[in-house]
Amino acid sequence: xxxxxxxxxxxxxxxxxxxxxxxxxxxxxxxxxxxxxxxxxxxxxxxxxxxxxxxxxxxxxxxxxxxxxxxxxxxxxxxxxxxxxxxxxxxxxxxxxxxxxxxxxxxxxxxxxxxxxxxxxxxxxxxxxxxxxxxxxxxxxxxxxxxxxxxxxxxxxxxxxxxxxxxx
Length: 168
Known about the structure:
Number of strands: 2
GO molecular function, one term: opioid growth factor receptor activity
Distance between the termini: 43 Å
Protein name: OGFR factor
Pfam families: OGFr_N
Largest sheet: 2 strands, antiparallel
Family: Belongs to the opioid growth factor receptor family.
Domain Opioid growth factor receptor (OGFr) conserved: 3-165
Number of helices: 9
Strand content: 5-15%
Structural class: mainly alpha
């Protein structure tokens, strides 16, 4: 499908006919400026669809787009978007945009746990989005951030509470 071509992975997705990428293909993609530019354009396009703007291409920093209310309504209503976001996050990691992963996951954790604008995305953000982040250290930081904002904190199951309390 359209999303597979924009955000290819090294694993099988929902489309059984689509062949997973090889490590060699990923290396070739990452060396091609044209492919990487196209990838970034596709990422910005999808962010726009979800009501999100890429503020800084160096860091991957994000903010709500002007049309965020209408787009978040769509995100809340249609759960298939959560699978697409998981795919995009995994692909960001494959393509070397690990900082982008962190910003996108933190964006969704903030919107679901702090702002409470995306209640129907919360489970996916905690169960799937968080665990696409490649950097163990950054993943721990995000889990701690989620734990800090999760209500009730005693029901948080994504990390051991004793370690989360001591985390610095």
